[in-house]
């Protein structure tokens, strides 16, 4: 069985030994060497060509962030950062993720054997994800190279045209373009002799060089076929496409979107099944005196209450919910730094990340974005032009009280293996049918968020957006949503922010 080569980088000999032993408990991986600082790591990556690198963040001479930038510019490969939980380490870890690190794990406590084993499980899981992404990228690169070697683009275009017409491309040798044009011109002249003028083949007008070539006119002696040629070209097929309608780029014209299901005001609003009866007095107390994020909430989420009992008095009428995981910090940076300061809706975000790191992530994104970015806290009132990142270790739920929308934090059991969970966030916004809601899924491992995006789609949400495979670090969560058939817009990462600006008005 083939193994993947791993380079372990850490300034502590003891930690290098622990990390190497944890990795090699899986026979799929082999630690081929170690390095004690970033400078040595950058050199050994070029010499040894490992498949994956584990990199300590804080090291002397050259730290992990500086080494990461050098390695990604010389020989890009998956790099998993090992971070301490101090403020400096967390801040540099977030910056490393923005600069191309595959993911990160916290460093284990050397005095706690149980903690070492838990970190080992996380590390091996991330290594498997990294090599899976590596193989996916290799296969896609091979497919592109094979496609480039098949034939020149003009003949590939001919084959595409024939496939669209249900024909098979010819296997006979193709004449040189200049010779084909001469033969065609002579044939047209001979056929035009003695033919009525309206049936004569007119030469195509000279047009600027474009990607679409004029099709060759058919020549037939059948009068019906001749009459057909004299008529203007048939307009493009405008038959509706079965949903979902995937948009793979930003077109010049507005793309048709799937119709949403209208909700009649006299019909009762659909809500999630009641798990625990709401305790109104306790909920009111929480709103008046918000609980700190570190304290577990005691109120039942307000989504269990009928949405019709309260009237929306918020000054905004649209809400964006975003979910991401592996590769998410870099994706969020691309998304949020392109959102204008006057964006007319709140943005609620779940990024799979441990406690404390989400605060560093929010601070970093806030410094780069024109909108305000904060780590969500219990009882916060949602405001337009602000992004709220769920704190690590807590589910984030959107509730409504006294006409305003607020953040509710919960320490209920993990969902899909995650807390915070994207599914939990998406489920909480389903009852708010008086809002225009938009759900976004970006890069991430697994399927968290896909099931509740499907429920939102079926209930008539305004738009659903997923990041496409070309730009995902891990094409897991978006792919799951695509497979469920609940994505209106499938876009590369740079086009997601412009699409949100376009549809949130």
From TrEMBL:
GO terms for cellular component: cytoplasm. SMART domains: REC (SM00448). Phosphorylated by CheA. Phosphorylation of the N-terminal regulatory domain activates the methylesterase activity. Keywords: Chemotaxis, Coiled coil, Cytoplasm, Hydrolase, Phosphoprotein. Its EC number is 3.1.1.61, 3.5.1.44. It holds the Pfam family Response_reg. The keyword Disulfide bond does not apply. It comes from the Bacteria. It is found in: Cytoplasm. The active site is at residues 325, 352, 448. Its main location: cytoplasm. Residues 159-276 are annotated as: Disordered. The modification 4-aspartylphosphate is found at residue 56. GO terms for molecular function: phosphorelay response regulator activity; protein-glutamate methylesterase activity; protein-glutamine glutaminase activity. Residues 178-200, 215-230 have a biased composition (Basic and acidic residues). Transmembrane segments: none annotated. Residues 5-122 form the Response regulatory domain. Residues 124-151 form a coiled coil. It catalyses: [protein]-L-glutamate 5-O-methyl ester + H2O = L-glutamyl-[protein] + methanol + H(+); L-glutaminyl-[protein] + H2O = L-glutamyl-[protein] + NH4(+). Belongs to the CheB family. Involved in chemotaxis. Part of a chemotaxis signal transduction system that modulates chemotaxis in response to various stimuli. Catalyzes the demethylation of specific methylglutamate residues introduced into the chemoreceptors (methyl-accepting chemotaxis proteins or MCP) by CheR. Also mediates the irreversible deamidation of specific glutamine residues to glutamic acid. Contains a C-terminal catalytic domain, and an N-terminal region which modulates catalytic activity. PANTHER family: PROTEIN-GLUTAMATE METHYLESTERASE/PROTEIN-GLUTAMINE GLUTAMINASE, PROTEIN-GLUTAMATE METHYLESTERASE_PROTEIN-GLUTAMINE GLUTAMINASE. This is Protein-glutamate methylesterase/protein-glutamine glutaminase. The lineage of its organism: Bacteria, Bacillati, Bacillota, Bacilli, Bacillales. The gene is cheB.
């Amino acid at each position: 069985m083939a193994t993947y080569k791993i380079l372990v980088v850490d300034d502590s000999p003891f930690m290098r030994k622990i990390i190497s032993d944890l990795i090699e408990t899986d026979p799929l991986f082999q630690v081929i060497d170690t390095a004690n600082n970033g400078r040595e790591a950058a050199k050994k990556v070029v010499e040894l060509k490992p498949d994956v690198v584990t990199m300590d963040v804080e090291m002397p001479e050259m730290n992990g962030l500086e080494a990461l930038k050098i390695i990604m510019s010389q020989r890009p490969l998956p790099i998993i950062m090992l971070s301490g939980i101090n403020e400096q380490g967390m801040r540099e870890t977030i910056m490393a993720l923005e600069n191309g690190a595959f993911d990160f794990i916290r460093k284990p406590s050397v005095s706690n054997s149980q903690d070492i084993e838990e970190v080992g499980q996380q590390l091996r899981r991330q290594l498997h994800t990294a090599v899976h992404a590596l193989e996916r990228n290799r296969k896609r690169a091979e497919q592109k190279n094979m496609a480039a070697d098949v034939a020149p683009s003009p003949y590939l275009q001919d084959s595409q045209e024939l496939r669209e017409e249900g024909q098979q491309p010819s296997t006979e040798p193709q004449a040189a373009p200049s010779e084909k044009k001469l033969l065609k011109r002579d044939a047209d002249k001979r056929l035009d002799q003695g033919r009525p003028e309206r049936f004569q083949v007119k030469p195509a007008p000279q047009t600027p060089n474009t990607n679409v070539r004029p099709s060759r006119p058919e020549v037939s002696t059948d009068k019906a076929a001749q009459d057909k040629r004299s008529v203007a070209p048939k307009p493009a097929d405008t038959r509706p496409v079965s949903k979902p309608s995937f948009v793979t780029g930003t077109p010049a014209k507005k793309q048709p979107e799937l119709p949403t299901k209208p909700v009649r005001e006299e019909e009762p609003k659909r809500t999630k099944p009641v798990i625990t009866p709401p305790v109104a007095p306790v909920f009111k107390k929480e709103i008046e005196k918000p609980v700190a994020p570190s304290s577990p909430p005691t109120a039942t989420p307000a989504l269990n209450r009928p949405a019709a009992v309260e009237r929306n008095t918020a000054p905004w009428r649209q809400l964006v919910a975003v979910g991401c995981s592996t590769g998410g910090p870099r994706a969020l940076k691309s998304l949020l730094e392109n959102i204008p300061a006057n964006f007319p809706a709140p943005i609620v975000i779940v990024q799979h990340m441990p406690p404390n790191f989400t605060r560093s992530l929010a601070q970093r994104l806030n410094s780069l974005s024109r909108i305000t970015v904060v780590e969500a806290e219990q009882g916060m009132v949602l405001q337009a032009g602000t992004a709220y990142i769920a704190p690590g270790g807590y589910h984030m739920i959107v509730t409504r009280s006294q006409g305003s929308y607020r953040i509710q934090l919960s320490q209920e059991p993990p969902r899909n293996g995650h807390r915070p969970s994207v599914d939990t966030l998406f489920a909480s916004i389903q009852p708010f049918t008086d809002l225009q809601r938009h759900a976004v899924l970006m890069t991430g491992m697994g399927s968290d968020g896909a099931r509740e995006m499907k429920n939102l789609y079926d209930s008539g949400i305004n738009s659903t957006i997923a990041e496409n495979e070309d730009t995902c670090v891990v094409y897991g969560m978006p792919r799951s949503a695509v497979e469920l058939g609940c994505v209106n817009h499938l876009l590369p990462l740079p086009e997601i922010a412009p699409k949100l600006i376009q549809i949130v008005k």
